[in-house]
Structures are given as C-alpha cells and as structure tokens.
Amino acid sequence: MDKKTNEVLKFLIDWNYLLIEPPVEGSIAEIYFCFIASCQVKGKDKVSWLQFVKCLQKLNEICIHNAFTCMPANALSLTYEDPFKCFSKITYIDRLALNLIYKQVKLSSNPPIEPPKTPPPPLSRLRLAAQREVPRDKEERLDLLMELVDRPPVKSKRAASDLYAGLSPLDIEDIYTTTSRSKRLEQLSLLLSAPAGSHILAKERAKLRTPIKPFFDCCDDPRHAQLLIPLTSFDRATNYCKLNLAKLNDRLKNETGSSDTYTELARCVNQKIHFIPIIQSQTDTKLGDCSYLDTCHKMSSCRYVHYGQLMPQDDSASKKTAQHNKNINKAMQISDFTRGEAISPATRPELPAQWINCDVTKLDFSILGDDFALIIADPSWTIHMNLNYSSLTDSDLLQIRMDKLQKEGLFLLWVTGRTIETGRDFLKKWGYQVVNQITWVKTNQLVRTISTGRTGHWLNHSKEHLLVGLKGNPKWINKCIDPQILISSTRETSRKPDEIYGMVERMVGPGTRKLEIFGRQHNTRPGWLTIGNQLNGTHLVEKEIAERYYSASATEA
Ligand code: SAH
Fold first, then answer.
1. Is 321 in the pocket of ligand 1 (CB under 6 A)?
2. Domain presence at residue 319
3. Would residue 215 count as lying in a domain?
4. What's the whole-model pTM score?
5. Per residue in 419-457, pLDDT tens?
6. Among 140, 306, 403, 485, which lies 20 to 30 A Cα-Cα from 76?
7. Does ligand 1 lie within 6 Å of residue 382's CB atom?
8. Which segment of 138-152, 248-262, 345-359, 376-390 scores lowest on mean pLDDT?
9. Where are the alpha helices (DSSP H) in 244-393?
C-alpha cells in the first residue's frame, strides 16, 4: 500500500475514534478538509483532493468494497473536479475493516494487501489477506479485533526504561498514534502495572534516611569457639565477649610452621561473629544448649549451655556504614509529603517522646486528640501463661474506645495465635479495614529461627503477627517501602523488635503524631505518645494534651 493511502487510513481510524458514536455521517469533502488540517498539524505533505478520493477508493477495494458505505452507493467511483463540487457522503466507516488493514500493514514487512484481482465477491462477505472471515455479529467482530490488537509485550523481556517509554507519547506523531484503540489499551495496561512515582520516591527517600548497621556472617566452625574460650572474657551484663589480643598473639607466635590453626582463627575472628560457650560451675555440656539462650531467666543457675557473643575485630564494615549514616542528615532536608503537606524533617523535627502511666481502660481518649496518623497496640491478651504484668479480657479490650482516636490512618494490632481472628474482628468493630499483616519471624541469640519458644500449644511459636488496619482513605501513606516480613531476635518477654518502628514510621512520614497503647518505658520514642501501666509516671510536652490531661485528673481527684 502506498504511503498516502496509509496516511489516509491512519487518519480515518484516528478521526473516526474521536467521534463518539459510529457510524459517521459526513460529506466526503468535509472529511477531506479535516484530513488536510491534520496533515498541516503534523507537518506532512499535502494530499490533493483527487489523490484523497483515490486513496479512499483503494482502501475500499482492499476491504472488498466494504470499508465505506456511501450516499450515493457509487460515490467513490464518481469523478469530482474539486471538493466544493462534491456533495456525496460517507454514511458509515467500518472501523473494524480499517483496523484490520492497519494491523496488517503494520505487522507485515512485505507490502501486505493488494486489491484482489478477481471481481469482488458479494458485499456481505469480507475477506482479508489472512483469509479470516469477519463475523457478522458485532460482539464477535469486537472479539476478533481485540485478538488482533497488539498484546502488551512480555514484561520480563523488556528493559524497564522500554516499558515506561510506552507511557508517554514521545513526539507529535505519537500523539496521533496513541489515539488508536490498541495503543491506548497498551498504554493503559502499562500505566496500571507501573509503580506510582510516589512509591518510587518514597522508597528512595527511605533508603537515604534509614541508618544501616554493618552485617556480619556467623562463624560455622565449632573448633573456633572452643579455641576462643581461654582467649576471651565474658561480660554477663551485655552477653558480649572480649578478645584478649595479647593471648592470641602469643598463640600465633608459638604456632609451628606446619600448623596454621591460630592464623586461620585470627583471620576468621576479624570477619565473623563467634559464639563462645560460657562454661559455669553448674553447666553440664552433655545437656546441650539452653532453649532460651541469652533470654534465659535463670542464667546463673541454669545447667544448659549459654553463649557470649564475640563481634568481628575488623571495623572496615562499620566504617562503610558510618559513611552512609553520616549522610542521613542531608537526606533529612528532602521534603516529605505527609498528611497532605510537604514537610522536611529538618525543619520540623519530631516532638520529644511523651508518655502517660495509666489504666488504658479508664483513660478518656478524647484527651489525646483524634489526629494520630498511626497507632500501634500490643494488648496483654489473656493467654495461658504467667506474665509479670496484668492482662485484659477480650471484652475489656473491645470496650476501649479505640474508634475515637483517628479520623483516618493506620492501626497496627499485635495478636497472638488464638487472637488473630479476634483481633481482626475488633479492628473491624473499631472502624478499620484489615489491609495487611506483618509477620515477625523470631530468631535467637545464635541467629537461628526459634525452635523451642516459651509459648505454643500445638506447635512452638516462632513468629508473631501484627495486623494492619486502615481507616478512611488517607492519600498520604507511603506505600510499598518495606516488606511485610521482619526477621529479628527475641528479647525480654513480650518485647517487640525495634525495627517495627522504622517500618511503620516510613509509612506515615515524619512530623506526624503517633500513639502506642500498652507500651513500656523502652517503647517511648520521639514523635510518639506512649500509654500503659508500666511507664515511669507521666511526661507530656504538647501543651493542649497536658492541659486536658491534668485538668481531667484534677476533676477525678
Ligand atoms: N509492646 C511492649 C510489650 C507490651 S506487654 C514491648 O515491646 O515491650 C503489655 C503491656 O500492657 C504490659 O506492660 C502491661 O502491664 C500493660 N497493660 C496491661 N493491661 C493494661 C491496662 N489496663 N492499662 C494499661 N496498660 C496495661
């Protein structure tokens, strides 16, 4: 097909799509003027009136006289001197037929369809070069067209830049092609599968702002731990060991030529973490490791083996992370979009930590305000275990007016095995939709998953769940930054990993009010108000909250 016919074809497809209701009724001259105008916009060569009519004829021939319905029926075979003398009309453009030709032209490298040499078969039958019969039924026709529409390419095979390139028209030419249905569909599917710019930005910002710790492997040679027993001293307060370098150097000096045990040990001690058995007078090594290791409540009398941790001596890894951590202040200058405002944490630092020692079931929540972006609660659910703090029955907990604390935002609720379902139910009753669940996989001191925890009825509990409830439709939440799984070691009974704060703070951004319910002193942090009955008194810095709280306590007294 020649270039001009191709241009007319493209124009007709696009132009016809711009009109809402097919079929189209317009004089051929009118369509010609529109075409000329579009050529002008695109900076293309002019096509004369006669050429234009010829192109229409050609297209109609390719489609076996079925592309256009004209008035009079033979309008395209008449001769017109100029457009002003043509009063014939095109009353129907078969979009399907035109699209099929367009696809053929685009897809095949050979000049594809030539007008059939034999006289056209009856008008009702439209056959294409592909010899596919065009169904009569409109639905079926559409299906066939959709089949021919370019499928979006397999994503993994395309570079990301390629993938997104399709999202925006690159030049004026593209703007015209993107009005075609197939291109628009492709763009739409690309758009839907592309991560939002806000997600990408939030993720990058989080990477720059999150302090990192050096990562070390653990030594897996059991001989090293044995050799290190006489070379280290143990500090019970911290559970860490200290290396006696002088002693190690002595051993290195005495090492005979053929043996390199200590040379190898010195190299390993520089790079990896070692766990050194602490042999006390009561320790019976035959019993093996204590299940609780460093969290054992009776370490000074326990007969099982405990360990002290010896950190790598080489500090080059720490130097690398220190460099990143130094740049965090710079990253803090970048504004963050949070709660509908652009905030730079550098200009609006978090409020200092605040806390209230109280019985949560008795506190009037209206004192606290209702604009928390985030709430986290770790209730002492009734479980069959002796704990050193009070617990709550399910109905006491449900009665707490959690529904009053937020207009919109996130509510994270720690649940235990039995209470996963109860927790979901409670969140819904408080006005939240449970949108996700964060899982904390517990590791022990030796960085292995817990196989014999303190809790568990059917199976040993080696994980805990944090339900993520959402109220309203907050636009300011940073989505998809962290994964929903967190691997971290256990500490005191019920104490949750600190990493959780980083995760949830990244979701709501800086400068937002955050509330922790059933928190303890070690949970207090800048930006957070912590409430619970094991806190050291009350410490409030927000003036209105302090006033409301103290005047309510005075009335009570
Ligand atoms: N998430 C915490 C552990 C919370 S344990 C951490 O990481 O350490 C549950 C806490 O809720 C305990 O401190 C318990 O004393 C407290 N608590 C139980 N009932 C309470 C009540 N009615 N009012 C306030 N605090 C309560």
1. no
2. no
3. no
4. 0.67
5. 999 999 999 999 999 999 999 999 999 988 887 766 777
6. 140
7. no
8. 138-152
9. 245-254, 261-271, 316-326, 328-331
